[in-house]
Known about the structure:
The chain has helices at 30-42, 56-61, 74-92, 111-120, 128-142, 169-183, 207-225, 230-236, 247-255; strands at residues 5-15, 21-28, 95-96, 99-100, 103-109, 159-165, 195-201, 240-244.
Amino acid sequence: MGSEVAITGYFDSSEGESGRITLAGYLASPDTWAAFDRTWDEVPRIFSPPSQYLHMVDAMALRNEFARANGWSGILVDALLRQLLHRCFLPFALDVPDGPSLLKLYCTIERDEWLRACAGAPNLKNYGRAGVCARFIAGVAVHRLPQAEGEPEGFRSGYLELVFDQGEPFKRQVELACQRAARCAPGQRGPLSLVSVIREANMRQTPGLQAADYLAWLVNRWQESQSQVSWWLSFKSSPGLAFELTAEFLIEWQSSALDIRTVRLPSR
């Protein structure tokens, strides 16, 4: 794999209490991830008590690794999250000649929007919200690959590696989409044919997946509670691509054979 991988993406999902589903993660070169991982591993260990990994549900509920019995509190968790923001996310998201070195990417689908979309395009039910999010994110991620030298605009070179947490259902959805793309005739395979590796990793041992968990949790919970946390506003404004897939977009996307190249991307 090594030199063949141009971009690696780590992704995680979250479902809010209101029925919103989110798939979120980060894209970067392997070199950027190596530097990010070193910094991420350092931050939780400077705290007393130290933490071996970040899992947002546990951290916010003060349980397991972050239990009060271990010495953690809401104030200490907030300090950890702010440290990760200022030492990991913001520095690695600084603009570089070809764009942000660490790119934030997420999409959400509200339950009500999904039901409206399925009423207008019943075939969407065959994919499910998870499947649509997976295909959408993978397609957008592929477009971050570099332009192929000597080829018409839009042709990509290199390969994309996507990494999911163990047991993450989105992984299977992406695999199915990529398998279908690979079976198409040359010239009709689309961007998903450039996804070279789809694998699982242990979130507790993988900073990229912990970062994706951080993002997915915050996107869903902050939007639902509208909690005014100063560090989240800085985090939210960092470079990235955020998409909310409305009913109108989903209907148009379905009618275009789920090809993101033929419809205008919704952004916010």
